[in-house]
Amino acid sequence: MPDPAVASVxxxxxxxxxxxxxxxxxVDLAVGRGFxxxxxxxxxxxxxxxxxxxxxxxxxxxxxxxxxxxxxxxPPHRIAALGxxxxxxxxxxxxxLSALSNVMVGAHRHFRHGHLAELFGLPSARREERRQEExxxxxxxxxxxxxxxxxxxxxxxIGTQKIIEVARALLNDPAVALLDEPAAGLGxxxxxxxxxxxxAWVTASDSAVLIIEHDLGLISRLCPQVAVLHFxxxxxxxxxxxxxxxxxxxxxxxxxxxxxxx
Length: 262
Description:
Helix content is about 35%, strand content about 25%.
């Protein structure tokens, strides 16, 4: 596991309970640069981990650090301002806005001149907006959507909407991107677009990407390291091949009869 002192995200002793139901029970997880996979059965607490990191949920115990700064209990907009972006299992786009406009929402922390400057059309604000529009177009092109940027987001199938939401999260130039099942519901072509776009973006950045996914093939392709969450605890962390062949993981998560296809 990455050294917590240099990790982009460090969870230490995180505990979350809803009533008598303990969802996270002393979770320690350090996430470094590049891709890290977070896998586990439904109800293991994976999305709760993302909610704690992004500020949507305050833990009952433990600490959260982002790029070395403790953010435990801070509201989501404060954590986002530090460079944390996330997606959700169901995409949250504005359906009657174009794909381009939806992605540009992700650049909010890069706009320096405020709403009044935009309202009065000051030259500095226009230059800023043009720059972010250019970046949004480039990012959508990276994900294979460069020729449909003006289409309303609501007119796309759910798989493409999820890719647009990923692009929106990345336009923020996050230090940490939290992706919650981005490939769920995607066809083979969209999965390839997603993988190609994410790989290109991570290669060009120093960011950390924590990705929740049930597609173990995709996790193995993208992530050099994987954490397994089971009953609110991290039970294994390591290389995908090692993790997916670990007897404890096979029995607890994949099932005793599961055989990994070599």
